[in-house]
């Protein structure tokens, strides 16, 4: 049994964790956030809660479809029958499809927590800033100067901009492969005392500011307005607009997105019960590398993340699995 460190508890790191635990290893997971899930985040403000990043999970790959079926049987995810709409200059119209879309229940982060439960140790609020390999062991150091030693192998699951500084010293050849653009996105989270008068519950939008809106309360196992809960909505700004206004004042961004949200739904503005604005600096990979994972020829070190496979939860899962397979091979070869 080897002791393995995973930096990053996003879907890729959690997918690596599943396979490494199945193989009998001891695994410690680190994340700079207070919880797990990364871009599959859920935000709670007052009595409102929203999936703030990934809105749903889709599958194209048979292996990932199998895993989704299992998670569905386990009651970790449910299908969201969202009846998509398209909204553009021409108006609002239904755009039915037969795509299966799943969500974590009762929120996206619940799925990541279930996956994380298999870890031997989870160290949250811990931003790792350096990784060194000495005398056959990895040593990690955090921003707040905590030291963690004694790992036989290391898996890094972070966006490329955050992986690069970690790789610079031990594996400059891998750091050089982290020149991958990630597109930013502003997310506006809204909650209303009275449900909006709209048939739309999710829409792909062609608009200068917003490209997707959805009613979070419409997802399975969320608190429902019919039972007295707030109605919650999510609006994602498109990447071009976000890039142009990445550093604009938050109040201004919020107002622009709010105006756009009501304009898109062809509704008059309504009072808000809660509101939250989040900036994702590294929301979606522009052009993924399609390599699965990165690995070192000389060190027990693998790197995973959606940017190495495909910019979605599925891509992150596939990448994490690949990183775990490579780690397994490496540990086997070293014995
Ligand atoms: C607004 C938005 C909407 C999206 N919509 C969808 C969707 O509907 N469907 C879909 O499939 N995908 C969607 N995605 C993409 C999807 O969320 C990602 O592809 C996937 O979650 C990426 O997982 P990951 O494990 O590669 O990375 P991440 O989720 O980014 O995980 C990386 C983790 O590393 C941690 N970390 C980073 N640096 C350090 C460090 N130095 N030390 C310790 N920890 C560190 C981070 O805190 C994070 O938890 C969306 C993303 C965003 C932002």
TrEMBL record:
It comes from the Bacteria. The lineage of its organism: Bacteria, Pseudomonadati, Pseudomonadota, Gammaproteobacteria, Oceanospirillales. Residues 112-325 form the Amine oxidase domain. InterPro entries: Amino_oxidase (IPR002937), FAD/NAD-bd_sf (IPR036188). This is NAD(P)/FAD-dependent oxidoreductase. Pfam families: Amino_oxidase, NAD_binding_8.
């Amino acid at each position: 049994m080897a002791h393995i460190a995973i930096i990053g508890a996003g879907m890729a790191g959690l997918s690596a964790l599943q396979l490494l635990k199945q193989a009998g290893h001891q695994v410690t997971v680190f994340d700079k956030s207070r919880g797990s899930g990364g871009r599959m985040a859920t935000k709670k403000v007052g009595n409102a809660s929203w999936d703030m990043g990934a809105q749903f999970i889709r599958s194209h790959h048979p292996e990932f479809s199998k895993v989704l079926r299992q998670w569905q049987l386990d009651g970790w995810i449910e299908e969201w029958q969202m009846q998509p709409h398209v909204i553009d200059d021409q108006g609002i119209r239904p755009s039915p499809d037969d795509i299966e879309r799943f969500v974590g229940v009762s929120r996206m982060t619940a799925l990541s927590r279930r996956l994380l439960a298999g870890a031997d140790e989870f160290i949250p609020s811990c931003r790792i800033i350096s990784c060194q390999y000495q005398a056959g062991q990895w040593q990690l150091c955090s921003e707040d100067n905590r030291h963690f030693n004694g790992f036989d192998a290391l898996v890094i699951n972070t966006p490329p901009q955050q992986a690069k500084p970690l790789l610079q010293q031990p594996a400059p050849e891998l750091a050089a492969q982290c020149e991958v653009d990630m597109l930013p996105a502003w997310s506006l989270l809204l909650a209303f005392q009275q449900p909006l008068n709209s048939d739309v519950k999710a829409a792909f939008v062609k608009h200068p500011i917003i490209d997707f809106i959805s009613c979070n309360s419409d997802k399975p196992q969320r608190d429902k307005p019919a039972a007295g809960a707030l109605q919650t909505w999510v609006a994602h700004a498109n990447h071009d607009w976000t890039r142009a206004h990445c550093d604009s004042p938050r109040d201004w961004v919020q107002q622009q997105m709010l105006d756009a949200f009501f304009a898109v739904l062809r509704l008059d503005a309504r009072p808000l019960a809660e509101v939250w604005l989040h900036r994702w600096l590294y929301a979606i990979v522009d052009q993924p590398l399609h390599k699965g994972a990165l690995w070192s020829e000389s060190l027990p070190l693998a790197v995973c993340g959606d940017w190495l496979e495909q910019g979605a939860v599925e891509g992150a899962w596939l990448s994490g699995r690949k990183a775990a397979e490579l780690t397994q091979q490496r540990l086997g070869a070293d014995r």
